[in-house]
Amino acid sequence: MINKKNTNDQWGIKSAGVHIIAVENCTNSCEFCSTSAPFAGKQSYSASSFFPWLDRLFGDTPNPFKDTYIAITGGEPFLHDNIFLFIDEMKKRYPLKKVGVTTNFYWASETKIRDVAPLLKSLGDILISKYPSTVSRIGGEEKFDELVLLLKYLCPHLDVEVTPMINTFIKWDFHTDRQAVLNACCTAFCYMLKADGKLFRCSLAYGLAHRPEYGAIQDLTPERYFDLSKGLDGFSEWSSKYPIDLCQHCTFWKHEFSVWKNFSE
Ligand code: SF4
Ligand code: SF4
Predict the structure, then answer these.
(1) How many whole angstroms from 249 Cα to the centroid of ligand 1?
(2) How many domains are contained in the chain?
(3) Which of 41, 137, 172, 182 is deepest in the core (most CB within 10 A)?
(4) Does ligand 1 lie within 6 Å of residue 88's CB atom?
């Protein structure tokens, strides 16, 4: 039975849809990476490995995913051996769904964008996170913005959105003691799907798996994921609950900010 005080209705948090983890690792090493990609192994997955779980999520059972779009993410999805085939296969399987991808744009150059543009026909939107390291490598803000404009020009069908990560980052930590959750969390319904059928409730819940130093907290927080390979019993209650047990061990809902730092530099 759902305690109504603990649902997203009460907190006013909107679902951010289902994020497909196509690649676990990344080119950056951001200090407060929510998915802990700097600690993940080099691993990527085929589009078809997600189909059994997406079929279930987009099926007839009433659930918050029927009207959501598909966001391909990581890590850094463009590290995939063939991200373009991945996108095409996803769109072919779910033709009524908008398919988007997130990227830190590490691959951007005029030549590469011209090569890539014709391969993005199945893509609906691209969310570019703008990090200082990428801006610097590309040659500055003006050059970065020029490349974004070139991508928009060559792919007029594509919604291109740039999120500046220049100054701040939400910092987070986990603590073993349980604390009352007093605020909404921006990533509370940012579901992350792994190829094995585990659907994580938020990016930090997924990233926790890469952090053995927080192993004790993993044992205390079974609500951090729902195993779709075992069916959908209890899914509706799980998918609308906030806070979950992990929130009581997490600082993310406190919205504390830190200067962005790439700790590999
Ligand atoms: S660019 Fe994004 S995925 Fe990569 S380490 Fe930074 S926050 Fe994580
Ligand atoms: S506060 Fe809860 S929903 Fe937000 S990141 Fe932490 S565990 Fe996830």
Answers:
(1) 22
(2) 1
(3) 172
(4) no
